[in-house]
C-alpha cells in the first residue's frame, strides 16, 4: 500500500513566487508532513495490533521529497510476519500469541495431533501433520506467519491519515514559507 502526497494545485497557485525559495519551502513542508504521517501510521497500527512501533517502521520504505519531484512516498511491505513479532510466549500447551489487542491470547497447540508448535531461534515453528522428512521420521516444519504490515493498515486508517494530512500541511507550509521568504 502506498500513501502519496501530491501538491500540483499548490504549485499552480503559487507559481508567481520566486521558484527556488518556493520549491525549497514546499519540499521542507512535504518532508515534515511525511515524517509525521509515517509516525501516525505506525502508531495507529500499534493501537490495534500487538506489534512494536519500531518493528512496523522496519517494514515501511520512506522516500523523501526532492525539490525537483516534490513528492513523498511511504511504501508498506506486504510480506507476512512471523508470530514472534506479536508477543509470542512458549508455555506447556504450545505457543501463546496475542495478535489483535482487542482479543485475548490464542494458543497454537504443542500436541502432535495438531501439528505441534514451538519457538526456536526467535521464530515460531509448527510441525505439519502427515508430512515426513526423508532423513528422519519427524514431520516437516513451517514458520507460523500472521498478518503483513499492509494488511494491518486498513482503509479507515488511511482516511483518517489523509484528513490529518490535509489539516496539518497548510500550517507547516505557512511556517516554512515565512522562513524561506524572510517574512518573520
Description:
Helices cover 40% and strands 28% of the residues. The chain has 184 residues and is of the alpha+beta class. It folds into two domains: 2-80 and 149-181; 82-146, no CATH class. The strands form four sheets. The protein has a three-stranded antiparallel sheet. It has a three-stranded antiparallel sheet with strand order 5-6-7, with no helix packed on it. α2 runs antiparallel to α5. The two termini are 39 Å apart. The mean pLDDT is 82.
Describe the SSE topology.
Elements: E1 2-6, H1 8-13, H2 19-48, H3 53-58, E2 60-63, E3 71-76, E4 80-82, E5 89-91, E6 94-97, E7 106-109, E8 117-120, E9 123-132, E10 139-143, E11 145-148, H4 149-152, H5 155-181
Antiparallel strand pairs: 1-3, 2-3, 4-11, 5-6, 6-7, 8-9, 9-10
Helix pairs in contact: 2-5
Structure summarized in a few sentences:
With 184 residues, this protein is an alpha+beta fold. It has helices at residues 8-13, 19-48, 53-58, 149-152, 155-181; strands spanning 2-6, 60-63, 71-76, 80-82, 89-91, 94-97, 106-109, 117-120, 123-132, 139-143, 145-148.
